[in-house]
């Protein structure tokens, strides 16, 4: 219920028991001229991932979107996805869950060779090339939800499953927003922090990009969020795509 969220957050918080999508709502608020606002819901009935994929959002999760208006060019916006991944990883670790980041937008928990998806992040924006008008960073955390209620093929997990007991969503969300607020205002520290939690670096990867697949060893990440891959034919810098961790050959 809303009562659980007596949030002391660095943003105005709009809470919904149930809403189609916090990102959609935050975009509407942006169109109305709002800023520095978090839309938070217990349940989403039309949650979205990248490329219009479905994001399952049953009651008990932390489904939220942060709307803000940073003074940055459009091309820098991916740094806010990384910032969100770092912030949520720190909050998860403080809650006792050993999360790591898979480029570009997944926060995972490793179980041996298996990686289970704990969080998804979806960043949307509008503006001119030299300056964004607004950014909405959507963060979906499987907090106190049963992975059996989530799509199997995603090999999902949740904070409550990993901890063996529910997480205090108010505290978790507060820590997440504090970390995110600090990082979005000091984006120079984001890449460094990201490297600390990355599970992708040093791995053989296959990235499906709009220009075709890129396969090789992920060796680094560059501001504002591109992955550097050593392929057989040389170094490639990939700014977006779906990334698969391959087994070491
Ligand atoms: C993402 O997309 O991972 C970004 C998800 C962003 C969700 C947040 S919640 C708050 C805000 N409001 C929204 O409407 N969205 C944002 P992508 O990388 O495309 O992954 C989507 C895929 O993850 C789906 O195709 C499923 O296979 C899988 N999936 C769906 N729901 C899941 C869940 N709850 N946990 C783990 N995996 C899930």
From TrEMBL:
The keyword Ligase appears for this protein: yes
Domain BPL/LPL catalytic: 6-188
GO biological process, alphabetically ordered: regulation of DNA-templated transcription
Ligase among keywords: yes
Listed name of the protein: Biotin--acetyl-CoA-carboxylase ligase
GO cellular component, one term: cytoplasm
Residues forming coiled coils: none
First-to-last residue of the parent protein present: 65 to 313 of 315
GO molecular function: biotin--[biotin carboxyl-carrier protein] ligase activity
UniProtKB keywords: Ligase
First and last residue of the signal peptide: none
Highest taxon in the source lineage: Archaea
Organism: Haloarcula vallismortis ATCC 29715
